[in-house]
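Thread: quick sanity check before group meeting

JM: Hey all, I'm pulling together slides for Thursday and realized we never actually wrote out the predicted structure for the chain we discussed last week. Dropping the sequence here so it's in one place. If anyone has concerns about the input, flag it before I start.
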Amino acid sequence: QVQLVESGGGLVQAGGSLRLSCADSGRTFGLYAMGWFRQAPGKEREFVSGISGSGGTIYYADSVNGRFTISRDAGKNTVYLQMNRLKPADTAVYYCAGSRSLTVSPVQYDDWGQGTQVTVSS
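JM (edit): ok, ran it. Output follows.
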């Protein structure tokens, strides 16, 4: 059974940093692209960043490019999202998800974690 478990969310002041982790179990980690999405209250879920199974291809949303860094550790079956220079607009529940191919569309992702709250105060 596939399970994705996020951790690392919390409350941080604007300009601060957080690192989110997503532990993947129940399948061959390297076969799956991994994505990070976020959803703020009253808004649709939006793509944040994604990384291919090999780690060789990475996508970022324009709103986070240059501030966030995605990475994956095959030995730990874990994907990370390092978030720097956080802004109040980054406040949302962050989800990791897995897909057979790297895409920005959430409907293409089959497996989802439970989400972790990130709150950035001004």
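AS: nice. DSSP finds no helices and eleven strands in the chain. The first strand starts at residue 3 and ends at 7.
JM: adding both to the slides.
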